[in-house]
Design a protein that fits this description.
10 helices, two-stranded antiparallel ribbon, single chain, Glycerol uptake facilitator protein, transmembrane helix
Length: about 240
């Protein structure tokens, strides 16, 4: 398996299980209906665990354009590999979102709430206010990427490129699982903590393509892309100053 394929599969599994738990909680008639935020944040963290476990040994398991960009800005990852990693992450996110829809197709059909159906694909704000929503995504992603820098072991590199340092999978899947769980529990209530442009944009595109009724809320879609990019950039710059 190549790093490109590993990023696709790892991201696909992460989205399948992460967005899958949202579908289980919010769609009508599921066994997990109305089981709550703790279930969602816990399963999302475990979804990251699964993706990192699969992709980590091959690609470093970035699974997130913000992580890839942050590591590149900090000099821990080759800029030459950034486009292919982000492309793989987007493909994986699109694929995972499609599988969530396929798996829950009957429950999508009986759910009247269009907002709940969109939530199975992408994030949205609890209180819609552009500045606050953007700040939430910036801070959440800053925490994610800044802590990941302290996970990454500079002595480990991808077998395909001696200058490309690993990301989420550098010290195993458990630390980043706990990190994502903490972010979800503490910082996730305002916007749903996208903290990952591919995680939000890929499934949002799939929502627009699939026969799921309702708006894809494109007026909000730039926030879970711009916020994570800005947060990752700030984390990389601060890490560079401190180190």
């Amino acid at each position: 398996m190549t790093p490109f394929i590993a990023e696709i599969i790892g991201t696909m599994l992460m989205i399948l299980l992460g967005n899958g738990v949202v579908a289980n909680v919010v769609l009508k008639g599921t066994k997990g209906n109305n089981s709550g935020w703790i279930v969602i944040t816990t399963a999302w963290a475990l979804a990251v665990f699964v993706g990192v476990t699969v992709a980590g040994p091959i690609s470093g398991a970035h699974l997130n354009p913000a992580v890839t960009l942050g590591l590149a800005i900090a000099g821990k990852f080759s800029w030459e590999l950034v486009p292919s990693y982000i492309a793989a992450q987007m493909i994986g996110a699109l694929s995972g979102a499609f599988l969530v829809w396929l798996f829950n197709k009957d429950h999508f059909a009986i759910t009247e709430d269009e907002g709940a159906k969109l939530a199975c694909f992408s994030t949205g704000p609890a209180i819609r206010k552009t500045s606050s929503n953007l700040i939430s995504e910036i801070i959440g992603t800053f925490v994610l990427v800044f802590v990941i820098f302290h996970f990454a072991d500079p002595s480990i590199s991808l077998h395909t490129d001696s200058t490309a340092k690993v990301g989420l999978g550098s010290v195993g899947a458990l630390p980043v699982t706990l990190l994502v769980w903490a972010i979800g529990l503490s910082l996730g209530g305002t916007t749903g903590y996208a903290i990952n442009p591919a995680r939000d944009l890929g499934p949002r595109i799939m929502h627009a393509l699939l026969p799921v009724k309702g708006s894809s809320d494109w007026s909000y879609a730039w926030i879970p892309v711009a916020g994570p990019v800005l947060g990752a950039t700030l984390a990389a710059l601060l890490y560079g100053v401190l180190n």
